[in-house]
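Reader question, answered in our methods column.
A reader sent in the components of a multi-part assembly and asked whether the whole thing could be modeled at once rather than chain by chain. We filled in our standard form and ran it. Here is what they sent:
COMPLEX SIZE: two components
ENTRIES:
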Amino acid sequence: MSQTISLTLQVNRQSVTKTVEPRTHLIDFLRNDLALTGSHIGCEHGVCGACTVLVDGEIVRGCLTLACQLEGAQVETIEGLTESGAIADLQAAFLQRNALQCGYCTPGMLVCATELLQDRPSATQVSRTEIREHISGNYCRCTGYEAIVDAIEETLKSRHATKVFAKEVA
Amino acid sequence: MQHPGAPLKISPMKPSPFSYHRVTQLAEVFPLLSLHGSNAKLLAGGQSLIPMLNLRLSQPELLVDISRLSELRGIRLEGEVLKVGALTRHVEIERSPEVARLFPTLIQAVREIAHPAIRNRGTIGGSLALADPAAEWPAAALAFDMTFELASARGMRQVKATDFFKGLYDTALTADEVLAAIYIPASRATSRAAFGELARRSGDYAIAGAFVNAERSTGENGGCLQHTRIAYFGVAGVPVLARRTMAALDGTTGDAAAIEAAAQHLEADLDPLADLYNKRATKLHLSRVLLKRLVASLGA
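And here is the structure of the entire assembly that came back:
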């Protein structure tokens, strides 16, 4: 009883139409069908967060989402976020703070932090505890997290400062 | 043990093949369920079902995707009752002003469900229908005396949470029914509630967790607890109402001596089960710790 489904959705702001098996995970669809290998596969049962991507602006697990569920959805991956420059400051902070070593968790970690940057534009609202809570579903086996929290906190603060400055200038 | 030179045996974490049908109306679900019976599974948020498919613990022939049924979604106050559509996602409850006003304890609890990426997709109805004994929602349903609306081709029927959870992953839902909505009796000025769970890491399943929901009487018996409901999760094969413990607290002020006396009943109420990491005695001890903390935290 094998079935295939025609699927149309937006990936990194481009319309994509493909035929998929219903059992295809979003993460395998991105990596195998679209060659977007920036998002990684770790545990494949929702524990590690390496496959985190944005669907309609919200973070999801690529291994706990079926591609066929996403007809008409907007998917954004680390490739899209990198090309648009949306998180260039966050990526620079990761580099500067040594918030990555082997790099396996990094795309998922960056996408996860992207949601925090979007939802909580004012750094004054976000404590380190909240940052830790937000990334609690993303495992990193190298850094010990401290540098990752530093980088996210720094980005939140500098974005907030830029906003305050822009307001003052206006 | 595997020989170091031998090729690794890797089982891919991919589901077995299945068919997929996305429905646009609730009425479309029932013929599919009657045709496929237990070989069909309902897909809502998928945050428990898809891991089970990946591990091949579940191998359905058909997934019926109900996630776009807007009629099963949303939070609305209807008189004295808060109606929550079964497909309402955890994140929507977390951000609901109605829930924050009426049930701050439930907001606290929903934030303990897994991680943000899971809460963005997982639904309250999915969690209740799965009835994982370690999950927050089934115990919340017992403590807050929720009622479930179950839909089938025969129409709607209502089942109280206390009659819904039958056993390990077993509920009153029949193979042709869909959990449609959850009704929560609104809290009053006299309502007092508390929630707590003990887990090794943030987002992990709790070793033990509990909800307390009671009324603080006014008038002649001023300050006494009444209609106390205490529900535990993560301690047994089902979410459990600690009935003897509840009865022992009713009519007391919930002071330290009353809690101590009530805690004597927990072992009989919960009959805790050991898990991979925690003995029965540990579960019982932590259940007592939670009882003390939660009842002591109920406001005057």
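What stands out: Chain A has a mean pLDDT of 94. Strands of chain A lie at 5-11, 14-20, 52-55, 58-61, 74-76.
Send us your own complexes using the same form.
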